[in-house]
Amino acid sequence: MVYELRNITKTFEQRTVLNLERLSVKKGKILGLLGPNGAGKTTLLEIMAFLSSPTSGGMWFNQQKVDFTGGKLKDLRRRVVLVQQDSILFSTSVSNNVDFPLRIRKAPKAKREQIVGELLDMVGMRDFGHAPAHKLSSGETQRVAIARALACFPEVILLDEPTANVDVENQIAIERIIREINRTKGISVVFTTHNMIQASRLADETVFLYEGKVARSIYENIFSGRIQTDESGRQLCVAQNGLRLHVQHDKSGPVRISIDPAIVEISRNGNEFSEDNTFKGRLIQLTDEQGRVRALVDVGVPLSVLIPKEVFRSLGLGIGDDVWLNCPAKSIEIF
Amino acid sequence: MDFLIDGLLSALLLIWSLDPGLIEIVWVSLKVSSTSTLIASLVGVPAGFLIAFGEFSGKRFVITLLNTLLALPTVAVGLLVYTFICRRGIFGGFDLLYTQKAIIIGQVILIIPIVATFTISAVSRLDDRYRKTALTVGANAIQTAWVIVREVRFGIAAAIIAAFGRVIAEVGISMMLGGNAKGFTRTMTTAMALEYDKGLFELSVALGIALLAVSFAVNVFFHYFQGRVRE
Predict the structure, then answer these.
(1) A187 and A65: one domain?
(2) Cα–Cα distance between A220 and A213 in angstroms, integer?
(3) Could you say which of A182, A214, A246 is where a domain stops?
(4) Nearest-CA residue of chain A relative to B147?
(5) How far is CA B161 from the centre of its chain?
(6) What is the pLDDT of residues B95-131, one digit of tens each?
(7) Are A134 and A18 in a shared domain?
């Protein structure tokens, strides 16, 4: 294990944003941390990058307990690097940014130039070497930030939502780079995302974080809403995005709900389902996912559905098709 | 109106002819002000950094105090320093009164709050991701501070220029601690006050133009440098 975290908590002004019983990262593997905004992903990465200390609990890095109070954090930081969400580049040229970690490690100039060139090649930014860093697009910035991180020759690279706010072309490029650095350089990778599909594409293992804790299952299709009683006296959850779902729960008032995509049923014909929690939508995305097909259906809001391959084949679904979804009570979790 | 035009023409003639008296006064002013700005920057910039990044009790009070000191009257500083360096003062034995060193001491006290406050403001506004990025790629505390200095260099330059502008234009400290001795502690502002008292406006106006020219030149240089870097 490259990381072992036990009973790690982080509290800001009496608010606990992280409360992890146990988490470990295997050497040379890619770990995906999935979770909605506010789940504690960034806080966790900052602790793992030795930039922030936990309020309580212990962390082991390569079997050595990390002393967050001691003066050895700089040495540990030189073995792990964090690429932040919306990375920032220093106000100088692209090459100088990539060169910075090498310069502070006092690498010889000729060697530095060679490494900077190779890394910029790797992220497809060689032609931008002399360009001012602040003139790059967000996708290009992220690629240069990854090159700069690689110039640290880290054992672990931590990426905080590496493809947030970047276009599809850069997203593909960044995912390719992540795979490449893991496979060719053997660097352990931990990345955060709230994109389930991306996590399943990239990660060897995925952990779902919710409200600072490792959730027992991966919550998907998460919506904020309010439980109220409808005219027939039944409990109705009205999500902020307009989705209306009948639920059976003790709670009332504001809640968050999750709809399990593996339990949601899909059909070409709405008559197959009861009226309750049945929605008509249009199929907007299909992804192959470990023996199943993930379909994204626009029912006013995008709902993700996991379909067994045989069901998918029998329905003969294609992008743009009209479909019906039914969310049975057991597919809805309220918290 | 003729009186103003005559004064202005005579002043321009003095500048054009590089009048030795005028040059000497401008030189003393630049020397004293540059030295005090340099010393205040060496103290004020690191102090600003320490205050901005440090977590200590009384931090808010220190910042409030520095902000209050921005409005410090020059005569108050002059009086304070005078009590220390006059013959009966603690440092009376050093014979500092009516020397350029005395002016520099007073001016340094006057502008350290300006440099420190502007630095705190510039550093506090900087996105914390710069600090975290420097740390995560392996920089030590000094290298991280250097990264931040580079990113806020225009803010710090603005602080130093503001401080220089304050000292080159001040009159209270130079008059009280320098004594306006010709060829020695006579600065542009004290000379202007003297010439005004004597009713001789030519030199006074010429010095006013020189003062504006210095200020203009410093600002032009700053904007040119800023523009070059941002290109």
Answers:
(1) yes
(2) 15
(3) A214
(4) A90
(5) 7
(6) 999 999 999 999 999 999 999 999 999 999 999 999 9
(7) yes
Determine how many CB atoms are found less than 10 A away from the CB of residue A275.
Answer: 8
B151 in contact with A, Cβ within 8 Å: yes
Range of the domain at A148: 3-214
By Cβ distance, the residue of B132, B139, B229 closest to A84 is: B132
DSSP bridge partners of A60: A4, A65
Q: Say how far apart CA A295 and CA A293 lie, in whole Å.
A: 6
Kindly list the residues of chain A whose beta carbon comes within 8 Å of any beta carbon in chain B: 46, 49, 51, 74, 77-78, 80-82, 84, 86-88, 90-92, 100-101, 104-105, 132, 148-149, 151-152
- Contact call for B137 and A101, based on CB within 8 A: yes
CB count within 10 Å of CB A120 equals 23
Which residue out of A81, A86, A88 would a mutagenesis test of the B interface target, given it has the greatest number of B Cβ atoms within 10 Å?
A88
- Which residue type sits at B29? S
CB pairs under 8 A between A and B: 53
Same domain (yes/no): A141, A38: yes
Q: CB distance from B129 to chain A under 8 Å?
A: yes
CATH of the domain at A305: 2.40.50.100
For the domain bounded by B24-230, which CATH number is listed? 1.10.3720.10
Q: Rounded to 5 degrees, what are φ and ψ at B195? A: -65, -35
pLDDT tens track, chain A, 335 positions: 899 999 999 999 889 999 999 999 999 999 999 888 888 999 999 999 999 999 999 999 999 999 998 778 888 999 999 999 889 999 999 999 999 999 999 999 999 999 999 999 999 999 999 999 999 999 999 999 999 999 999 999 999 999 888 888 888 989 999 999 999 999 999 999 988 778 888 999 889 898 888 886 667 788 888 888 888 888 888 887 778 888 887 777 788 888 888 889 999 887 888 878 899 999 999 888 777 899 999 988 889 999 999 999 999 989 999 999 999 888 888 87
Question: What are the structure tokens assigned to A237, written together?
Answer: 């959850």
Pair A55, A201 in one domain = yes
Report the residue from B130, B135, B140 with minimal CB separation from A51. Answer: B135
Distance CA A264, CA A273 (A): 11
Nearest-angstrom CA–CA distance, A189 and A146: 12
The residue among A214, A243, A259 that closes a domain is A214
- The structural domain count of chain A equals 2
Complex ipTM value:
0.75
B-chain CB neighbours of A78 within 8 Å are 138
Q: How far is A104 from chain B (nearest CA, A)?
A: 7
The shortest CB-CB distance from B127 to any of A88, A101, A132 is to A88
The shortest CB-CB distance from B139 to any of A104, A149, A151 is to A104
